[in-house]
Amino acid sequence: MLEVEMKFRAADWAPIIAQLTAWGAISRPTRKDADHYFNAGDRDFAKTDEAVRLRRIGTSNFLTYKGPKIDTLTKTRKEVELPLANGPENAATAVRFLSALGFKPVAVVSKLRDVYTFTRDDFHIEACLDDVGAVGKFVELEIQAEEDQFEPARAVLMRTAVELGLTQQERLSYLGLLLAQSGT
Question: What residues are annotated to the active site?
Answer without folding.
Answer: 37
